[in-house]
Amino acid sequence: MTQSPQSPQPPQPSQPPQPSRAVEPAPDEELLPATRRALHHRLAVVQAEGRAPSVVAAVVRDGRTVWAAGRGEVPQDAGAAADVQYRIGSLTKTLTAVGVLRLRDEGLLDLGDPVGRHLDTPHGGEATVAQLLAHTGGLAAEARGPWWERTPGDLRPELADVFGEEPQKHPRGRRFHYSNPGFALLGALIEQLRGEPWFTVLRREVLLPLGMTRTTALPVAPHATGWAVHPYADVRQPEPAVDTGRMAPAGQVWSTAADLAAFAAFLLAGDDRVLSADTLAEMRAPASAPEPGDWDTAFGLGTQLIRRRGRLLAGHSGSMPGFVAGLWTSPEERLAGVALANATSGVRAAGLAADLLDLVAEHEPPLPAPWRPMPDADPELVALTGTWHWGTSGYVLRLHAGPALSLTPLGGVGRGSRFRPGPDGTWLGLEGYFAGETLRAVRGPDGSVSHLDLGTFVFTREPYEPDAPVPGGTDAAGWR
């Protein structure tokens, strides 16, 4: 699987190859034989019909790799196959986004900051950090010619060389327009604020803490050769694999199925050494409007989002000459799928990654976590639970471990939300209409709870309770 001598390659880094990490699950975590057979069959079909020299794939469940395999010109041992490097293309963007969100969480920037506040750039400086992450900065889709994915990065040594004659294609913030140069700016932003090369920061702050020792900027053996397969004949030729320089944060990285499985596990649950689960949830929330007629796809902060069979998948696809990649996570099912192939086109790596999730969910739907009572609970919070009314609409307030509160409309029609504790006994809304709004229990002169105030909405124990401060008052004659 080492690179063909016919294929031009950048020099390999000096560090020796790292040993393969085990990817086989513990016996009590293995998939059922029928599930494994279905996964192997899907992998084989995709490799054969896509005419890919090799395909590797993996499935993550509850934070562990529960299945991995390779097909074609790749070792048939699961661990060896999962240790072969492939170029991951735009999956690099999600890694770059993690680096940017770390800067935000440390207080070094705000997502609403114009990039030009932190970085001297000839173009794109008025776009905010969030707009570049979500591809709404209006910048051109591609770098200045020639085709950046197949030409050395030293053709663009400065940021100014990244942009063509018309760098701004759309007004900032008006629409989604995928931009590779936008992520070149984000990589330069990381370098500016950290004072080190982009990949040096990424390796230290993201890759090594997650155990991704086989993820590199340049290929390290064993790695696959990138191939262009003829569309009408069973022949092929090697693709160039160049160091893309300033464009590297948009698609440079090489990785393995084992490393990407570790990254997928992180995207599902978080790791406080890198990013919290709350920040990762923010990354996979839609941050831009989808294209008209394409309401099943959207984009978060450095993550692609798709709706598939009633659930939201978050991850990213990737392609570079000779390679395609895909990684999707299903947070609700605690599942992730990874697929890599070494062909420029023909094989649907991202589709395969999603297919793997479908198969596991179909054959082995996830078991809910067992219910357990809270270890302790504030009696005053317990007393708040039960039925409340906004006007004549009924709601149920429940207390959960954490602690956390949830407000659910009776009958399932209305606005609900989950809440987490805020300062001074208040609660912060986490979703829907009440996201970011404050819930507080308002007490009367005797210390008892008079009503709930949720963003000025008054909730009372009874509909239009006479003694409660219902806006506009209640009729003195009462119900009749």
UniProtKB/TrEMBL annotation:
InterPro entries: AmpC-like, Beta-lactam-related, Beta-lactam/transpept-like, DUF7586
GO molecular function, one term: hydrolase activity
Pro residues bias locations: 7-19
This protein's UniProt keywords: Hydrolase
Domain Beta-lactamase-related stretches: 47-360
Residue segments, region Disordered: 1-27
Enzyme Commission identifier(s): 3.1.1.103
Enzyme superclass (EC): hydrolase
Signal peptide positions (record): none
Coiled-coil blocks: none
Magnesium among keywords: no
Domain DUF7586: 378-461
SUPFAM superfamilies named in the record: beta-lactamase/transpeptidase-like (SSF56601)
Pfam families linked: Beta-lactamase (PF00144), DUF7586 (PF24491)
Protein name: Serine hydrolase domain-containing protein
Organism: Streptomyces litchfieldiae
